[in-house]
Amino acid sequence: MNTNPMKPILTCVLFCFCFTMLAQEADKKKVIQRIQQKEHQYGQLANQIWRFAEVGYKEKQSSSLLQETLRKAGFTIESAVADIPTAFVATFGQGKPVIGIMGEYDALPGMSQDSIPTKRSLGNLAGHACGHHLFGTGSVAAAIAVKEWMQETGQKGTIKFYGCPAEEGGSGKVYMVREGLFSPADVMLHWHPNNQHVISMSNSLANKAGKFRFYGLSSHAAASPERGRSSLDAVEAMNYMANMMREHIPSTTRMHYVITHGGKAPNIVPDFAEVYYYVRSPKRDIVLDVWDRLENAAKGAALGTGTKYEAEVIGGVYEMLPNDRLAKILHANLQAVGGYTLNPSELAFAKQIQQSEGMEIVDLASTNQIKGLNEVDNLATGSTDVADVSWTVPTIGLGTAAWVPGTSAHSWQAVAAGGTSIGRKGMMVAAKTLASTAIDLFKHPEWVKESKAEFDQRRGPNFVYKSLLGNRPPALNYRD
After folding, report:
1. How deeply is 461 buried, as exposed, middle or buried, from its count of CB atoms within 10 A (0-12, 13-18, 19+)?
2. Do the bridges between strand 206-215 and strand 187-194 make them parallel or antiparallel, or are there none, so unpaired?
3. Does residue 378 have a pLDDT over 80?
4. In a 10 Å sphere around its CB, with 0-12 CB exposed, 13-18 middle and 19+ buried, how is residue 366 labelled?
């Protein structure tokens, strides 16, 4: 009779492994239940921030509310970090691993909207058209749940929440990266409102943004136009050259602008005008090249119109650095958490809003479906300062259906749904998924090591982070 002396040992190891995994899954289920029990509380918190609707670097009330929530939950708060009054870091625990969770809370200018399925402004100028009220609150909910689990189980390590302002064009996280605030973390987690439940694997667009200001000479536009030098002419000349440039840049590159100042009256030659530009591309090297050409267009416009100009770089972010290992861990937890079903009132709201202009008709049952990792279109479409974090620390994020399926970000429909229970349900899916993933990373340090190995390989051995913003201080008044 053949006997294997290793069989009892292997059986014991397998039993211990299974027992550990079962205990871990039980822990996650308990944490998920605890988050669900606080759905109303976190929904109220998100709605408060939705009503504040504060733009980038002006999020005083929103930031204070989140800080106070974390402080009451037992976190130590470091406020006004990186010379930004509304940025903060909340910490619980000590030692390794250090798991970070990011949260945002800035609104978009000119996007005021009531929480109804027809377009109607609330009268204020800003609105949460990208759902950052949900982003900040959902991430706080996850961080608090993980902290409570660590206390109950005696889990070693550190959980950090990063309060990140001015994602919308202000590049808040870039200043935080520059200050080394993310460097202590072993892994960074984040999420974002979406119209579906999906793990973000796409490379976001690198982006550089800034304002070009032209100074001319005012005069009477009819009586003495020859004595004037029009700054608006300079803006228009620059824009014309930029639009001609579109034919001669890579097709994946994007340029967009708004004229923020163009004069006060037609009978006065304007002595000041300003245009605000974004340049985006999948590669930051292309962004930098196109931006240089844009500055040359501004210089030429000034020379041709007899005006002077200055350029201020306000925002600048990298393209995202993916991490497949973290994506698989996050996706497994998203599948375990699952989606949600629209109740009758939510379904009526969704059907009505789907009929509004600009909406895409998508199956409303998709709120209960999880996109597979290989089902996602990896074509980059937007930009985020999370990308700079991803070149500093292994980073992964997800999107959840916090809007009616078929909704575009930066739309009044996104603001409307974000102020309803639909937004809250999507936020809760995200909070549960982030908390579950953090628990996995605390319990499996080898997974953290694997994600770091991939991170190092993707960055390359000679990578040195260099901000696209240079050494400029935070552009705290960029929304003025």
Report:
1. exposed
2. unpaired
3. no
4. middle
Burial of 171 (0-12, 13-18, 19+ CB in 10 A): buried
Please answer whether residues 170 and 211 qualify as being in contact, where contact means their C-beta atoms are separated by less than 8 angstroms.
no
Pull the structure tokens for residue 434.
């982030």
Burial class (CB in 10 A: 0-12, 13-18, 19+), 24: middle
Residue 305 pLDDT class (50, 70, 90 cuts): very high
- State the burial class of residue 385 (Cβ atoms within 10 Å of its Cβ: 0-12, 13-18, 19+): buried
Can you give the pLDDT at residue 2? 53
Q: DSSP string spanning 165-186?
A: --TTTS-HHHHHHHTTTTTT-S
Dump strand ranges (E) for 35-97: 76-79, 88-94
Residue for token pair 């973290």: 326
DSSP 411-476: SHHHHHHHTSHHHHHHHHHHHHHHHHHHHHHHH-HHHHHHHHHHHHHHH-TT-----TTTTPPP-T
pLDDT band at 25, cuts 50/70/90?
Answer: confident
**Residue 287 Cα distances to 39, 60, 73, 254, 322, angstroms:** 42, 32, 42, 9, 19
- Three-state secondary structure call for residue 213: strand
Task: Using the predicted structure, report yes or no on whether residue 10 has a pLDDT greater than 90.
Answer: no
Q: Is 95 helix (H, G, I), strand (E, B) or coil?
A: coil
Report how far Cα 84 is from the mean position of its chain's Cα atoms. 17
Structure tokens at 360: 């895409």
Is the pLDDT reported for residue 14 higher than 80? no
Q: Which residue has tokens 């944490």?
A: 31
Alpha carbons 390 and 386: distance in angstroms, whole number:
6
CB 189 within 8 A of CB 438: yes
- 218: how many CB neighbours lie within 10 A of its CB? 17
Per-residue confidence (pLDDT) for residue 71, from 0 to 100: 98
- φ, ψ dihedrals at 105, nearest 5°: -160, 20
**Token pair in block for residue 283:** 């590669």
Neighbour count for residue 11 (Cβ, 10 Å): 10
Those residues with Cβ within 8 angstroms of residue 42's Cβ, 6 or more apart along the chain or in another chain: 35, 137, 138, 140, 141, 424, 427, 428, 431
Quick one: tokens of 390?
Answer: 């991803």
What pTM value is reported for the model?
Answer: 0.91
Residue 388 has pLDDT above 70, yes or no: yes
